[in-house]
Amino acid sequence: MGASGFALAAAAALLLAACGNASSADVTPIPTPSTSAKPTADLDGFYGQKVQWRNCGDADCTSVKVPLDYADPQGSTMDLAVSRVAATGTRIGSLFVNPGGPGGSAFDYAKAASAIVSGPVHEAYDIVGVDPRGVAKSDPVECLSDAQRDSLVSADSTPDTPAEEALIAAVSALPATECLAKADPEARFMGTVNAARDLDIVRAVVGDPAFNYLGKSYGTYLGEVYAELFPGTVGRMVLDGVLPADLDLAELSRGQADAFEVAFADFARDCSEHDSCPFDGTGPEVARQLREYLVSLDSKPVAVGKRVINEGVATYAVLSFLYFPSSDYGRLRGALDRLVTQGDGADLLGLLDERTSRGPDGRYLDNSTDAFYAVTCADRPYQATVDEVRALAQEWSVDAPTFGASIAWGLLACNDWPSIPDAPITKVTATGSAPILVVSTTHDPATPYAWGQQLAASLDNAVLLTWDGYNHTAYNEGSDCIGDAVDGYLLRGTMPAAGTVCD
């Protein structure tokens, strides 16, 4: 997939309940913003629209209309799918949530409210999910066929010959070509700037004067952009697993390549401590053998029915199960053991299908791949030649021998992306906002710790909370220390002390 596509799009959220100790009785109301900007007159109709809520299973749901192009509010519109799970106790406001991606469904994420926030937070907040424009249930863009998505996953991501380079360049061009042919003009307006503007309309429609928010992974960038556009309306905002605004696509992808290499080494260490590991020796020895095995699949792929596990497929599967050690490592180890020792790759393909939303009939269950490219390439436009990308692949492979080349070649997916009308926001200070809590994990494989440090330093009013671990994102992922600190902020507005580090 694309550079960040090879990395971030693999992160299907695995939601683990945390054990926070906050008391639901110890809650401080959210201050009403005094400096929030008023919408321009041509947006009054959107901000003032009345909606009808309906029961949709585990939540109430509605649709909110937003302009396709904010420069032309009287033109075409898009419909956003919104879910709301009511507070279980005395309500102090709405907490908007986004799981990341880009391309993940916030609508579905919010419906899992009891798993994504602690009990006391759920008591105090309605949990609200808004599928961003073009994503999932919000007028989804549809660009790629199932066969084309398969080709992106299975492409040789480490080409060795001019013919292989030409093939990966052709496959990488599919998202831009197909979105321009099948999803124009919607795909042109899917940048995060527009998605953040949409959130402010939904905030007003649900009746909240302040925007309270929990964003994870890409959801942090959506929160950053919102805070930059609407600093006076920020309420209690938690940004967990930071995707920064100020890196271009190559810088972002290089950071991920290096971070995933650290996670790969940790997986190899963990594997070496289990009898079910298909390789022998210490962690570094297991890492070397696994890397050699992945490379060997380039010339000796393993057939699984009508499908094939080649180097690209297997490498992507391994990368996609490095996000959450407590749940990922054991499943990946078992699947690799069956592949390496028995020649049976069905389990590894099953893991990859799970993370890419591919159903057993070969159909993809959502538009997350299409949306990922449409948002990523709009936010971080990139242009490079095959020669330039080859040079990056060689350079990155020095420090990231497992994933560096694959992630570098993925940059080609954002070449020649359709022009967009709004420039992305590349610097975030959110001057004048309420305090923002930034949460970062020291060995996060997808959003490196340094990115959280950089964001906390650049924001006008923020504190960094650190989890010393290997997980992607931190809140409600098993640390009572993180859970208590985040809950204290969401419930009482109390920031953890600067420099707080949780084990």
Task: Describe it.
It is a single chain. The protein is α/β, with parallel strands linked by helices and 503 residues long. The protein has two domains: 8-141 and 185-246 and 434-502, Rossmann fold; 146-173 and 248-414, no CATH class. It is built from 20 helices and twelve strands. It has helices at 3-7, 44-47, 106-111, 113-116, 119-124, 146-154, 162-172, 174-182, 192-206, 218-229, 249-272, 283-296, 311-320, 325-342, 346-356, 368-379, 386-399, 404-409, 449-458, 480-492; strands at 54-55, 60-67, 77-85, 93-98, 125-130, 211-216, 234-240, 302-304, 307-309, 436-441, 462-467, 501-502. The strands form two sheets. A ten-stranded mixed β-sheet has the order 1-2-3-5-4-6-7-10-11-12, sandwiched between helices. Strands 8-9 form a two-stranded antiparallel sheet. α10 links the parallel β6 (211-216) and β7 (234-240). α9 (192-206) packs across α10, α13 (311-320) packs across α15 (346-356) and α14 (325-342) runs antiparallel to α15 (346-356). The longest helix has 24 residues, at 249-272. The radius of gyration is 22 Å and the shape is globular. The two termini are 34 Å apart. Mean pLDDT is 93; it is low at 1-24. Belongs to the peptidase S33 family. GO terms for molecular function: hydrolase activity. Residues 401-502 form the Peptidase S33 tripeptidyl aminopeptidase-like C-terminal domain. InterPro entries: AB_hydrolase_fold (IPR029058), Pept_S33_TAP-like_C (IPR013595), Serine_prot/Carboxylest_S33 (IPR051601). Keywords: Hydrolase, Signal.
